[in-house]
């Protein structure tokens, strides 16, 4: 698929280390911190993050809200709430796609040139990893083909197995 090649990257590592415009947090609807990547982001950003999050009145599944990055090297954090996997017939795919779209809209609205996503919902929320990678790749590529911002989107995978699933998902798009 045209246009996504140079604008989508796959990175293996800890998302809290990325010195970019925005990182996305796979949060829960309270926005007050939790386990997994959410806990890592709150620990790395410091307690000021929770103060700002308290004022946001939570976030619905499929939606996203933006805060400052505080002690993170990233300027902003975009908190999005992925669906809990319940077998696939509860609108999970559309909600997961919405997380990616709403996060990209917020990134663009805040002049973020580079934004990184973790594999939303694939940890504690148990979304099947290959399906989640496919939705992430398709939704991001559709968005960036239509918009100039963000310029670059990074899929930040915590391990090599997840990175390989993203490589396959992005390659499948290129084949059309
Ligand atoms: P969810 O509740 O949306 O499932 P999790 O945080 O449990 O969120 O997991 C989402 C994904 O983030 C998982 O694939 C997990 O391996 C990954 N992950 C956990 N910590 C980090 C981190 N520090 N950087 C990047 N990815 C992470």
TrEMBL record:
SMART domains: A1pp. Pfam families: Macro (PF01661). Residues 1-174 form the Macro domain. PROSITE patterns: MACRO. GO terms for molecular function: deacetylase activity. This is O-acetyl-ADP-ribose deacetylase (Regulator of RNase III), contains Macro domain. It comes from Mesorhizobium qingshengii. The lineage of its organism: Bacteria, Pseudomonadati, Pseudomonadota, Alphaproteobacteria, Hyphomicrobiales.
């Amino acid at each position: 698929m045209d246009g996504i090649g140079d604008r989508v990257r796959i990175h293996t590592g800890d998302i809290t280390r990325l010195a970019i415009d925005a990182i996305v947090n796979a949060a829960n609807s309270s926005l007050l911190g939790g386990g997994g990547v959410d806990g890592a982001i709150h620990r790395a950003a410091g307690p000021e993050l929770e103060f700002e999050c308290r004022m946001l009145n939570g976030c619905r599944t499929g939606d996203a809200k933006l805060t400052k990055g505080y002690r993170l090297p990233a300027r902003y954090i975009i908190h999005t709430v992925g669906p809990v996997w319940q077998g696939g017939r509860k609108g999970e795919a559309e909600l997961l796609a919405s997380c990616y779209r709403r996060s990209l809209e917020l990134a663009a609205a805040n002049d973020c040139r580079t934004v990184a996503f973790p594999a939303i919902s694939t940890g504690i929320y148990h979304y099947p990893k290959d399906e989640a990678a496919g939705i992430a790749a398709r939704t991001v590529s559709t968005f960036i083909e239509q918009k100039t911002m963000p310029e670059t989107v990074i899929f930040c995978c915590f391990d090599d197995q997840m990175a390989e699933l993203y490589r396959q998902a992005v390659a499948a798009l290129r084949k059309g």
